[in-house]
Amino acid sequence: MSAIPTSTKPARRSHLRTLRFRETLAAYGFISPWIIGFLAFMGGPIAASFILSFFSWKMISPPKFIGLRNYVSMFTTDDLFRTSIGVTFKYVIIAVPLAQILSLTLAILLNQNVRLSGFWRTVFYLPAIISGVAGAVIWKWMYNNELGVINNILANIGIHAPHWLYDKNTALIALIIKGLWNVGVPMVIYLAALQGMPRYLYEAAEIDGAGEVAKFRAITLPMLTPVIFFNLVMGTITGIQTFAEPYVMTGGGPENATLFLGLHLYHSAFGYLKMGYAAAMAWIMFIVILALTISQFMLANRWVYYETGEG
Amino acid sequence: MIINHTTTYKLRIFLFGNRFRPGFIRQALVYGLLIILTILFILPFYWMLNTALKPIKEVFTVPPSWYPSPPMFINFADAVTNSYAGSSTPAGSIPPMLRYALNTTLITVNGVIATLFSSSLVAYAFARLRFPGRNVLFLGILSTLMIPFAVVMVPQFILWKNLNWLDTFWPLMIPHWFGSAWNIFLLRQFFMGIPMDYDESALIDGASHWDIYWKIILPLSTPALAAVGVLAFVYFWNDFLGPLIILSTPEHFTLTIYLTNFMIPLQKLTQWNLYMAAAFIVTLPCMILFFFSQNVFLKGITISEFRR
Description:
The structure holds two protein chains of two kinds. Chain A has 13 helices and two strands; from the N terminus they run H-E-E-H-H-H-H-H-H-H-H-H-H-H-H. Chain A has helices at residues 13-52, 69-76, 79-110, 117-129, 133-142, 149-156, 171-180, 184-195, 199-207, 212-240, 244-249, 261-271, 275-303, and strands at 55-56, 64-65. Chain A has a two-stranded antiparallel sheet. In chain A, helix 3 (79-110) packs parallel to helix 8, helix 8 (184-195) runs antiparallel to helix 10 and helix 10 (212-240) runs antiparallel to helix 13 (275-303). The longest helix of chain A is centred in the first third of the chain and has 40 residues, at 13-52. Chain A is flat. In chain A, 39% of the residues are buried. By secondary structure, chain B is an all-alpha fold. Chain B folds into two domains: 2-81, no CATH class; 96-303, MetI-like fold. Chain B is built from 16 helices and no strands. In chain B, helix 4 (74-81) packs across helix 15 and helix 5 (96-128) runs antiparallel to helix 12 (222-238). The longest helix of chain B has 33 residues, at 96-128. Chain B is flat, with a radius of gyration of 27 Å. Chain B starts with a helix and ends in a 5-residue tail after the last helix. At the A-B interface, helix 1, helix 3, helix 4, helix 5 and helix 6 of A face helix 2, helix 5, helix 6, helix 7 and helix 10 of B.
């Protein structure tokens, strides 16, 4: 365990202390880039953002202290803020669980000893490589009312399709479906977890005559709960920050049906130059993320199973 | 139990023949689902390529056709030379999209090298050295993962403005030389798996910590570095919000900004065939990288997989 060589030289106390000191010095040397970077690009801006959130500042005139007014007006006068919170919540509540179901299904299928497993895996992971703008551009074209492929297919099977991105009732659904195309990362994490499952549990269950469904419910699912939990938390954190898809595909419309919090914040900061207000909104976003993460951790006690725990 | 199982098996063979051996229905179900899902997942790629190869006339036919006739490979060249926002390409200068590709390449290459170097440096200290404050600082790094970009976005913008860095590549290049939390975490996990004996015997031989980092840990960690590298490549190549806020003159745009601006020049009708051709070109480097280093990618994602 000790990093101090004792075999060649007599380990005198002062010598030992010098080595310890040198190690500490070296360590701080190694992490100094992060410390400097943190102070300059994270810590400093975080503090500035917090202070700024109590100011009204439009860039052209000097900032004016207004106390909590930014936060108050967010909840009282800014209808768009409430809309954007609603849109973001709706998206997260629907899209994140659906993404778990889909990515877990894909992982289970890939884990069935199938032929060409590399091929299927590539296909399902590939969209994650081009997530963001390019993917959004492709889907925007596919959702095109008359010229798009989706409505063409739906028309062929006799379904009267909506206008998707131009209909306030379906625009958010369209973004959720597009989001499901990007489940490559959680899928790979599930797959790795499935492949790491101990065989003997299944063998024991088979001896007891357990069927597929019983094995899944009694072994696979409980063993996977830590990974499901991890993916849920990560999915929620990224879901709340959704930006590129609505920016490219809808611009927040129609009638603000896809006005995500990130988009509203971007408009406030760089469209209306309400810097103080945008900073306050960002803090609300952080609090929402923090609250959801903490509550997920608290709920986790009830359903997440840890091998080394009391279970 | 076992007897029971073989009896049912014999019964099944007797009734249905070999075709319905146990697991047949299950196999059919698995492959059926895989095929259906594959079609759904590939459709966007197919539609991108299909549209990219269509002559413009065919883009606007209703219902849309499922294959281009004739396939117009010239569309890819047109997408590259297509100038937008009303600005015509002055004679002798490079086509806009090529310029954006160069800008994006510069930012991406810098980002990959910067991330690999700085994150491994910090990760080395947290994985291999003992020093006061180690655990607190590491927790600090991890907790920054929860802070949304939006929180630092506005103050950073003001910082770049005061440094006169707006509309330059500096804000997209410099900050990545200071380590990124997620990659520090990934590399630390990997470094911790390397036996400490190496460090100890190197120290006895009089090696410095820098020597250990540079000559022992990094060479032993090429799989993890490759994983972080390819993931960083994809991240920087696709980055959107950063360039969107910082870059304002067209000459400085990146490919993702270019893609969002593609439809501006044509006012009413978007040349979807050129648009899709451009989207294909933008995604191509990442797809090629993925095809050649799939396992590296997948390892990178699952290094983070925590084991209890």
